[in-house]
Recover the amino acids of this structure.
């Protein structure tokens, strides 16, 4: 009885704690599309946002991007469930628990026009162009312009102003 | 033209809408944001999204501060955040109490770290901060209850000065009145005066907050005959304000039976009156001179109480305000007994009224209050009812010199108890049947000073507080103090160290007991005299604490407090002398009427022993035992988000008793009686020797000068007196035997045999004393008794044991459970033992979950490890227990909610307090009101 009770409470705890965070992270990711310019070869077809692994942010992203476009490109959100060709994605979001794979993805997508968005303190200064952080419990994001250039995407200066600029 | 005008207007409208929208974002509330759809959010530029997260974040921060860093006033007597509190402090808000489902203020204490809350009967609790109860052990059960924690309502002590502790049911207020409960763990007499030994519980009531009428309260009902309600109404009118409140609570016990110590089982109330005493079958367990129906007119009632309060407020200016409060309460409970009866729980009825004034002007605070009460603390037990009057006056002035905050103070306290209104005077106008037999009081005056110095941008803080207190019951001057150093590193880490000393106040029982317990008709002794003593030292504790608080992130609060204390000058009522009846003789004939036949059987009853304690005198004395306590309390609070709040806390502590005396009063009395008989024999032998030596009549005075003296009692001997009252109860023996299956005639015969066997045994033993006495030319035929007086000196117990040992008698201390003697090692040693009455591990948790705005689920649990009570009634082991509670409430209109409330959800029946009722699940439905 006690175990059941604790299990239920823990599940509730984890579920509600992350739901709101996911919603705003998804909203940020969607907004990044307005401040990033992808290479010409990726301005046709669907605009694909990949989320590494099973993550609850998927449903939030789908809710925000439904019937939305980047330019004329229809936004599609996909789960990345196996090590594959990451270069087809415009954005790859790496959840905190899978941050260990970010470096590998960064290496494989270098210069291919893939915005790598990570979610672990310190990642922007090493691996990704954009990284989510919480400051005084407020959702913020770090921007590493060098990494963005390495990824092969161009950024708006406004994005740097709105985020927290970091360097390698 | 029209097109241009139309275009301009359109642009103006769009511009204004755009402006309005921008303005809206910055002014949006957290609720507004959470209510926005995906489309609305998705349409916002990133700049606005950032603002939204800031608003959400700020609101959450406010929530965190509100939940994790509440304001507290009790630790420094001024508002400060609990994170900065220099002492171990916890604050429980009204909202949390309501959410938790606690049925009364007592139960709400289960939400506080470091507090042990044990249910005695349904809705009645014993509440301890850190323990140190049941000291001394092997004594009255009442010593197992808390007498070390000061409980106050708005800084007004609600304290039982009879013997310490708090009669929680006699609070005039209830949950509806509460704004918050502040708990300070650790010695705090420097701030609050005597009795804040292990800590302070200060219940702060609401103030009207606005000119809108404010109503809050609760109504609920459920099983175990539970129905209760409390309502609070208040508002400000200009500079004035008022608040009125009322509460009613009724709960039934989980049984209507009563535990009888001698039988180790429960009996119906009406059967107890005639229940035979197991040690003397012709007597009853219950005092035949009193009626158990009077003692327990409502055997099924656990709590039946109500209270009303009225408060007037005058806010002359921001820093000048006055509050005048008054109220009345009437309560009846059935709970653990104050006295030493043969049953474990008794009734308690208290009616009281109070008036309290608090005035604050600039830095000056004046508080004065009086409480008048009528306390029948062992319901209808003659001698235990009294009128009480307590008066307190406090004045403090708070001011600054540079960075020094200085707070000098003065206080006066008076507590008066008078039992004579409930006693019948004899022809000379004297009282003798009460506990005090007169008006008794103690008064104290105290001067205090508190220095509070902050430096390094208020990060480093030093506090030095002290108080000189003089009680008129003794010449001693007490100086409780408090020294604190705290360092708040960066609002995330706070370290503190506290050294403090605190003392209890004198109690009426300790100082003024004057009770002749006439036990006629009950097992010996026939009289026990209780005497107080004013010149004893007050229990005092020295306490050191190390505290660390950390908020690694804003929504997480973790606190650790390590504490160690040493408490001395405990006291209790110990034997000082007894009068033993050494003579044995045939006495009375008990007549047994055979039911339905009318035949009269005769059973000869003897005087019960060759040596019996006839009268025992007990006196309040300090004892050597010191309690050394070491422990740590951990507390963590996590606001996962605005919907989910999690708390967990636990305390691990070890209490050791040093210089512990492992005897009890019964053992001492038995040894004293044995020694008295031994002395008589030696006297007789000495007289014979003198006679043989030809010095007849010489030297007898020498024998009188020995530690005993021999006298004669020119009245019916003690045993006979006892039996006259109790002879009729032989019928109860027969009845019991018949219920056990014996036919009536066999039951009668068995009863006779039992009595005769004892008679023969006692006669043989008595004959020896007779012979010796006759040889000493004492005319034993002409007198019914030989009375020997034996004195007991606590410090010379060792000598007494040696004397017994020398005569080949095993002291009771050195007998095993089967009564076999062990060789006395020649030196009585005080030992160090582990004190197990306070559980070594106790704590709790809570989860407050609000999945949607209208729905709230609050689950909480408490647990404690095994505890062992050791009293004069024996040993009681309370098994480890986990208590789970849950309240689910749904707001049906604004903040008004319907709810289901489960206390002890799993219906765990294990007793939580020695020899009190089994607990049961209590399931209620009700209504929370707030508008």
């Amino acid at each position: 009885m006690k175990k059941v009770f604790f299990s239920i409470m823990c599940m509730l705890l984890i579920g509600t704690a992350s739901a709101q965070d996911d919603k705003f992270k998804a909203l940020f990711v969607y907004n990044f599309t307005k401040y990033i310019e992808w290479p010409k070869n990726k301005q046709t077809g669907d605009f694909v946002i990949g989320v590494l692994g099973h993550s609850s942010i998927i449903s939030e992203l789908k809710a925000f991007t439904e019937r939305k476009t980047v330019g004329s490109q229809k936004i599609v959100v996909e789960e990345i469930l196996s090590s594959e060709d990451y270069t087809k994605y415009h954005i790859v979001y790496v959840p905190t628990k899978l941050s260990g794979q970010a470096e590998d993805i960064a290496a494989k997508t270098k210069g291919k026009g893939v915005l790598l968005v990570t979610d672990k303190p310190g990642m922007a200064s090493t691996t990704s162009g954009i990284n989510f952080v919480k400051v005084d419990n407020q959702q913020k994001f770090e921007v590493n312009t060098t990494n963005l250039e390495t990824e092969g995407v161009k950024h708006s200066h406004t994005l740097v102003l709105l985020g927290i600029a970091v360097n390698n | 033209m029209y097109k241009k005008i139309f275009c301009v207007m359109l642009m103006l409208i769009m511009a204004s809408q755009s402006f309005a929208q921008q303005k809206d974002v910055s002014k949006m509330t957290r609720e507004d944001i959470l209510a926005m759809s995906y489309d609305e959010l998705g349409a916002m530029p990133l700049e606005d999204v950032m603002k939204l997260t800031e608003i959400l974040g700020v609101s959450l921060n406010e929530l965190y501060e509100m939940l994790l860093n509440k304001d507290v006033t009790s630790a420094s007597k001024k508002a400060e955040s609990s994170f900065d509190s220099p002492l171990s402090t916890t604050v429980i808000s009204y909202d949390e109490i309501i959410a938790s489902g606690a049925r009364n203020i007592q139960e709400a204490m289960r939400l506080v770290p470091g507090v042990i809350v044990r249910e005695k009967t349904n809705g009645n609790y014993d509440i301890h901060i850190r323990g140190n109860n049941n000291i001394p052990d092997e004594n009255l059960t009442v010593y197992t209850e808390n007498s070390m924690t000061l409980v106050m309502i708005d800084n007004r002590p609600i304290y039982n000065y009879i013997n310490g502790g708090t009669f929680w049911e006699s609070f005039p207020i209830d949950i509806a009145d509460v704004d918050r409960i502040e708990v300070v763990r650790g010695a705090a007499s420097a701030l609050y005066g005597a009795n804040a030994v292990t800590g302070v519980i200060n219940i702060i009531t609401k103030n009207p907050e606005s000119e809108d009428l404010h109503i809050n309260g609760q109504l609920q009902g459920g099983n175990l005959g539970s129905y209760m309600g409390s309502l609070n109404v208040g508002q400000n009118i200009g500079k004035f304000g008022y608040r009125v409140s009322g509460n009613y609570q009724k709960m039934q016990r989980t049984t209507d039976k009563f535990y009888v110590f001698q039988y180790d089982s429960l009996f119906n109330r009406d059967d107890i009156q005639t229940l035979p005493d197991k040690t003397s079958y012709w007597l009853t367990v219950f005092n035949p001179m009193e009626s158990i129906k009077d003692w327990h007119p409502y055997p099924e009632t656990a709590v039946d109480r109500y209270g009303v309060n009225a408060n007037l407020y005058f806010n002359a200016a921001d820093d000048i305000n006055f509050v005048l409060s008054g109220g009345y309460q009437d309560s009846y409970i059935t709970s653990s007994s104050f006295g030493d009866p043969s049953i474990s729980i008794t009734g308690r009825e208290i009616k009281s009224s109070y008036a309290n004034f608090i005035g604050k002007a600039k830095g000056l605070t004046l508080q004065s209050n009086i409480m008048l009460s009528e306390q029948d603390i062992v319901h209808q037990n003659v001698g235990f009812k009294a009128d009480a009057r307590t008066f307190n006056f406090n004045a403090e002035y708070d001011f600054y010199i540079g960075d020094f905050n200085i707070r000098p103070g003065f206080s006066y306290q008076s507590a008066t108890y008078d039992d004579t209104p409930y006693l019948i005077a004899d022809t000379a106008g004297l009282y003798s049947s009460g506990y005090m037999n007169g008006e008794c009081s103690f008064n104290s005056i105290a001067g205090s000073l508190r220095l509070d110095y902050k430096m390094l941008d208020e990060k480093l803080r030093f506090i030095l507080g002290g108080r000189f207190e003089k009680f008129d019951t003794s010449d001693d001057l007490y100086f409780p103090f408090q020294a604190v150093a705290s360092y708040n590193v960066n609002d995330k880490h706070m370290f503190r160290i506290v050294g403090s000393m605190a003392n209890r106040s004198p109690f009426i029982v300790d100082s003024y007991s004057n009770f002749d317990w006439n036990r006629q008709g009950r097992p010996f002794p026939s009289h026990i005299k209780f005497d107080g003593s004013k010149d004893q030292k007050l229990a005092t504790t020295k306490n050191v604490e190390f505290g660390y608080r950390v908020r690694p992130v804003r929504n997480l609060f973790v606190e650790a407090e390590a504490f160690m204390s040493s408490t001395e000058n405990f006291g209790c009522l110990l034997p000082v002398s007894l009068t033993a009846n050494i003579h044995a003789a045939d006495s009375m004939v008990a007549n047994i009427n055979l039911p339905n036949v009318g035949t009269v059987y005769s059973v000869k009853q003897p005087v019960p022993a060759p040596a019996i304690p006839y009268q025992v005198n007990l006196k309040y004395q300090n004892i050597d035992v010191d309690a050394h306590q070491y422990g740590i309390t951990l507390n963590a609070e996590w606001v996962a988000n605005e919907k989910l709040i999690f708390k967990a806390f636990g305390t691990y502590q070890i209490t050791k008793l040093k210089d512990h005396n492992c005897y009890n009063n019964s053992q001492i009395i038995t040894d004293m009686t044995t020694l008295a008989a031994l002395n008589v024999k030696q006297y007789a032998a000495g007289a014979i020797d003198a006679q043989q030596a030809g010095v007849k009549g010489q030297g007898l005075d020498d024998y009188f000068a020995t530690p005993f003296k021999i006298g004669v009692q020119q009245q019916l001997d003690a045993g006979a007196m006892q039996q006259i009252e109790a002879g009729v109860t032989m019928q109860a023996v027969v009845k019991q035997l018949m219920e056990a299956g014996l036919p009536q005639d066999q039951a009668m015969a068995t009863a006779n045999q039992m009595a005769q066997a004892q008679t023969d045994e006692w006669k043989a033993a008595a004959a020896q004393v007779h012979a010796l006495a006759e040889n000493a030319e004492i005319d034993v035929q002409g007198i019914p008794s030989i009375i020997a007086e034996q004195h007991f000196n606590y410090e010379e117990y060792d000598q007494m044991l040696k004397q017994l040992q020398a005569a080949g008698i095993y002291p009771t201390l050195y007998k095993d459970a089967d009564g076999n003697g062990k060789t006395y090692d020649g030196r009585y040693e005080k030992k160090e033992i582990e004190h197990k009455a306070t559980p070594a591990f106790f704590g709790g948790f809570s989860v407050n979950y609000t999945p949607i705005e209208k729905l709230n689920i609050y689950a909480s649990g408490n647990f404690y490890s095994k505890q062992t009570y050791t009293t004069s009634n024996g040993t009681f082991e309370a098994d480890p227990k986990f208590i789970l509670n849950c309240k689910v409430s749904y707001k049906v209109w604004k903040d008004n909610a319907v709810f289901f409330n489960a206390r002890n959800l799993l219906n765990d029946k294990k007793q939580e307090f020695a020899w009190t009722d089994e607990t049961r699940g209590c399931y209620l439905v009700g209504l929370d009101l707030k508008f």
Summary: Chain A touches chain B through 30 residues (CB under 8 Å).
